[in-house]
Amino acid sequence: MKNRINAIVIFLLFLIPLFTVIYYFEPIKHWIEDVNEKYAVTETGQDSESQQFFNFSRETENFGEYERSDFGNNAKHYGIDYHLAEDTPVKAVTHGTVTRLFDNEFGGKVLQITESNGNYYQWYMHLNDYKVKEGDTVKPGQVIALSGNTGKQTTGPHLHFQRMQGGIGNDYAEDPNNYIEQLPEGERSLYDA
């Protein structure tokens, strides 16, 4: 008797979901078609809105005045921060030369690249590890470091990307947003996540 009850329960546990799927097959089919349509690349080669949603931005702080900060009033932020798990591969976004690797009290481990045009400089900050050394020539897409949570001025693991024109340091920093947006993979050109 006990075996019969077990068999009936298992049978029902199998049948109920099966009948549910069969009953709702047509609505499910339409839902799947809608999802496929939303994920498709448009005729112009652009991602659909839904695909862009799932490729969400990891930006947590933009250039300018801090939006989320305990660093005081009128504190400036000289780059863009991207939330990344520790040890996420960080990539070079342009051809250039690694001109400096250093530790900074607030920025942690910092990697500096001089772009091949010689007029722009980049800082990648809060890194855990470097995958290049000073003097190395880098190319777009090359893994140059691993993201981290180093330095005092951090609220969690992330990558700070800063671009400077005509000199090195915060006084030369410019908003890198337009530059990043024109990269082949946008902000994802900076990391493999």
Number of strands: 12
CATH class of the largest domain: Mainly Beta
CATH fold-level label of the largest domain: Glucose Permease (Domain IIA)
Distance between the termini: 55 Å
Order of helices and strands: HHHEEEEEEEEEEEEH
Give the name of the CATH architecture of the largest domain.
Distorted Sandwich
Strand content is 25-35%
Given the helix and strand composition, which structural class is it? alpha+beta
Coarse shape: elongated
The poorly predicted ranges are: 39-48
Average predicted local confidence, pLDDT:
81
Count of all domains: 2
Question: Which value, in Å, is the CA radius of gyration?
Answer: 24 Å
Catalytic activity: Hydrolysis of the -Gly-|-Gly- bond in the pentaglycine inter-peptide link joining staphylococcal cell wall peptidoglycans
Cofactor: Zn(2+)
GO molecular function: metalloendopeptidase activity
Transmembrane segments: 7-25
Would you write up a description of this structure?
By secondary structure, the chain is α+β, with helices and mostly antiparallel strands. The chain folds into 2 domains: 2-53, no CATH class; 60-189, Glucose Permease (Domain IIA), CATH 2.70.70.10. It is 25% helix and 31% strand. It has 4 helices and 12 strands. Strands 1, 4, 5, 6, 7, 8, 9, 10, 11 and 12 form a 10-stranded antiparallel β-sheet that branches. A two-stranded antiparallel sheet has the order 2-3. The protein is elongated, with a radius of gyration of 24 Å.
